[in-house]
Amino acid sequence: MNLRHPIAAPTRLEDRLAQTQQAFDSVAADYDGPRGNNELIQRMRDTLWQTVREKLPAGARLIDLGCGTGIDAIEFARSRFHVTATDWSPRMIERTRARAEEAGVASRVDVHHLGVQELDRLEGEFDGAYSNFGPLNCAPDLRETAAQCARLIRPGGTLVFSVIGRICPWEVAHYTLRGRFRRAWVRASRGATAVGMNRHTIWTWYYLPREFYAAFAEHFSLVDYRALSLFMPPPYMVDRYRKRPSWYERLGRIDDRFGHLPVLRDMGDHFLIVMHRR
Ligand SMILES: C[S@@+](CC[C@H](N)C(=O)[O-])C[C@H]1O[C@@H](n2cnc3c(N)ncnc32)[C@H](O)[C@@H]1O
């Protein structure tokens, strides 16, 4: 997600959800390009792919919460997982459907236009769920989403989520140096925060890993969590990365090696959290 400037003006929940939907609809057509996918995004994506494959056997039934254009859903379907792909943006859902057809894996990808606030409309029993790059930061009631995950995921099943974190040192430095002090500290906001994208508004809730886990703790035990892109800059700084890729790759390897350590794992552009259904 390429998050820009914060915008004030709180609105009703339905209006916020509609605004977030319009924001993602507006970028769906080119989301696979530079806006939504680049080397730094793919690096984080690889970590989620690897974690899902480590924690869940091929053939498992998975829910993708906020599937976007379906990059992850199609990757897992190719690896013989069965994916129920959901998203709140109808345009994103169209992209996922088309991508599954093109890849010849439509029989293993079930696509639903469904927000994370509407999971009560989904039926079935699943072995796990994943969510990549922050759809759960758009959930208006994370505890209710957790309760619905508990209804849908079998005991012993696994959740793998990448979530936008609160403490991103690169972001604070980047915007502070440009004099954009409110933007530098936007992740410190409590509650729903309006963040601009493509002249639209995404209503976003930021979390520390422990704040996020608290919503799931009643039904899920914490397996582990780690920082994503703490030493490596966030994806919107990809131009900086491209000037000295081998140097920044070294920082990426520090993330890979030490991102699970106490204190470090509470920071980063995103964090990756793994939980088990009790
Ligand atoms: C940054 S994109 C990530 C998409 C995809 N997971 C990926 O890895 O490319 C965030 C996605 O969350 C979706 N989203 C936003 N609010 C949502 C909600 N309330 N319920 C479900 N999906 C939502 C957006 O439509 C968008 O596709």
Structure at a glance:
With 278 residues, the protein is of the alpha/beta class. The chain has ten helices and nine strands. Strand 6 (193-197) and strand 7 form a beta hairpin.
Helices, strands, pairings?
Elements: H1 13-27, H2 39-55, E1 61-65, H3 71-78, E2 82-87, H4 90-103, E3 109-113, E4 126-131, H5 142-152, E5 153-164, H6 169-177, H7 181-184, E6 193-197, E7 200-204, H8 209-216, E8 220-228, H9 238-243, H10 245-258, E9 270-277
Parallel strand pairs: 1-2, 1-4, 2-3, 4-5
Antiparallel strand pairs: 5-9, 6-7, 8-9
S-adenosylmethionine binds next to helix 1 and helix 3.
InterPro entries: Methyltransf_25, SAM-dependent_MTases_sf
GO molecular function: methyltransferase activity
Protein name: Class I SAM-dependent methyltransferase
Task: Give structural notes.
This protein is of the alpha/beta class and 278 residues long. It has a single domain, classed as Rossmann fold. The chain has ten helices and nine strands. The strands form two sheets. Strands 3-2-1-4-5-9-8 form a seven-stranded mixed β-sheet, sandwiched between helices. Strands 6-7 form a two-stranded antiparallel ribbon. Helix 3 packs parallel to helix 4. The longest helix has 17 residues. The structure holds S-adenosylmethionine. S-adenosylmethionine binds next to helix 1 and helix 3. Keywords: Methyltransferase, Transferase.
Could you give the order of the helices and strands?
HHEHEHEEHEHHEEHEHHE
CATH first level: which class?
Answer: Alpha Beta
Heterogens = S-adenosylmethionine
Provide the gyration radius in Å: 18 Å
Largest sheet strand order: 3-2-1-4-5-9-8
Name the shape in a single word: globular
Biggest sheet features:
7 strands, mixed
The secondary-structure class comes to alpha/beta
Look at the structure and give the mean pLDDT: 95
Number of helices: 10
State the CATH topology: Rossmann fold
Pfam family, one: Methyltransf_25
GO molecular function, one term: methyltransferase activity
Domain Methyltransferase: 63-157
Keywords: Methyltransferase, Transferase
